[in-house]
Amino acid sequence: MRAFVLFLALCGVMPAWAMPQVAQVILVQNSGWMEPFYTDPQSQFKPLVAALAGNVAQPGDALVLAAFNQSLPGAPSPRALLSEQVTKDTPAHVRAALAGLETAHKPGGTALADTDLGEAVETTVTKVLGGKAGLVWLVTNNRNSPNNDQATAQRNREFYALIHKGAAITKALAFPLRMPVQGQHYHANGLMVYVFAVGPEGARALDAMLVAGRVQRVITEPPARLKPLDRDTVRLVPRKVENAPGVEFSMDAAGRLRADVSPAARTPNATIQWQLQNTMYPYTIAGATISARSMLGGENRPIALKTNTVTRLAPGRAEPLASTVQLPVAQLPGKWSMAALKSAGSAYVLPGRIELHLQGQRLELSQAFRERMAALFPGDPLPDIFTPPADIQASTAVLPVEVHVHYGSGPLVARCESDTDSE
């Protein structure tokens, strides 16, 4: 570990280095269990890692590429292969660094190296990033067996606890990939690519990367969420508005709910039909009690829901939800007000949000995901790593809202004519 950190210091990629963008560390497993990924002539393992690095790391990012197994005296882990600030030449440098990488052996013998996933992640977060913002990518077959420990289920639970209990990791995703390979000693059906966002800035960088589609250029599988499980678990999508003349709802490209309101609309309530969608792949919301509030124009009001429970909502699925929302009519300026005159010909914008709360939330790993994991990692207790922590029994989803009141230019013209007449 000290040798790894020293190497980074010599290359200038350390927490103290002022960088315009978050640092990215790609950890590539090369322990004995990975033998078929390195020896099968048809293996797409190294091309995958190179393509991932070439798409997630952008010019200006600090990029570290490192191999990991389990650290032993004389054989530090992780071990840096490449450390540089990203330029147009970085993809070629990554391919060259990976070309000579092989499975590692224990010092002084022929035994293949063991694997410690937790050590690799913790060392990177605490020593390499030093707690600063960054993204840590982990490419692994998910065989977590320090000291050749066969209790992989327990080791996986410890790894999962590190992710959930560690305050430094703010967001964690996993991408299960099919990659059948056959080596001299072992065969495998698939790989797991994890990404851990460190700090709020790291989470924002990861969200922006996903929105931009940079990961999807390489990995088309949907990401399985590991963390967080207590927010943004569902999404509200408006279907139609009833009993509110002059009010229309829509979603903009940024995911905000937009309410377009006529200045003549003074209906105090609007009946909105929503689609409530589970955004927590791969978890089914087995059950929860739901409530909602609207925060608009300084008002904090409950939203009346037609149903207050959700049951067996599978990931990606949606169900109808009817609600009655109180509109902030008292906060909307009249058409002769100064605010309306300033907004003439455009719109007066009133920002706010809708919060949806899930209490008594019970999550279950979806059966389809379990079956996929069993096919990719036969015989491994992999789904245990996705077991939701028992202390996460509530979640909140926030929907940003903008109320747009459209004022015509009539009042402004009338005001101008009045001022002219007075002269």
Walk me through what this model shows:
The radius of gyration is 27 Å and the shape is elongated. It has helices at residues 2-11, 35-39, 45-56, 90-99, 117-128, 152-165, 199-212, 338-342, 367-376, 410-422, and strands at 23-29, 62-68, 79-85, 134-140, 169-182, 187-198, 224-227, 234-242, 247-251, 257-261, 269-278, 283-296, 299-305, 309-313, 318-326, 347-365, 394-406. The chain is built from ten helices and 17 strands. Strands 8, 9, 10, 11, 12, 13, 14, 15, 16 and 17 form a ten-stranded mixed beta sheet that branches. A seven-stranded mixed beta sheet has the order 3-2-1-4-6-5-7, with helices on both faces. By secondary structure, the protein is of the alpha+beta class. The relative contact order is 0.12.
Fold topology:
Blueprint: H1 2-11, E1 23-29, H2 35-39, H3 45-56, E2 62-68, E3 79-85, H4 90-99, H5 117-128, E4 134-140, H6 152-165, E5 169-182, E6 187-198, H7 199-212, E7 224-227, E8 234-242, E9 247-251, E10 257-261, E11 269-278, E12 283-296, E13 299-305, E14 309-313, E15 318-326, H8 338-342, E16 347-365, H9 367-376, E17 394-406, H10 410-422
Parallel strand pairs: 1-2, 1-4, 10-17
Antiparallel strand pairs: 2-3, 4-6, 5-6, 5-7, 8-11, 9-10, 11-15, 12-13, 12-14, 12-16, 13-15, 16-17
Helix pairs in contact: 3-4
Gyration radius over CA: 27 Å
User: What global shape is seen?
Assistant: elongated
Distance between the termini: 82 Å
Give the oligomeric state of the chains in this entry, treating copies of one chain as homo and distinct chains as hetero. Answer: single chain
Largest sheet: 10 strands, mixed
In DSSP terms (H or I, runs of 4 or more residues), the helix count works out at 10
Mean pLDDT: 83
Question: What percent of the residues sit in helical stretches (DSSP H or I)?
Answer: 10-25%
The proportion of residues in beta strands is 35-45%
Uncertain segments are 1-20, 410-422
Provide the succession of SSEs.
Answer: HEHHEEHHEHEEHEEEEEEEEEHEHEH
Strand tally, please?
Answer: 17
What would you call the structural class? alpha+beta
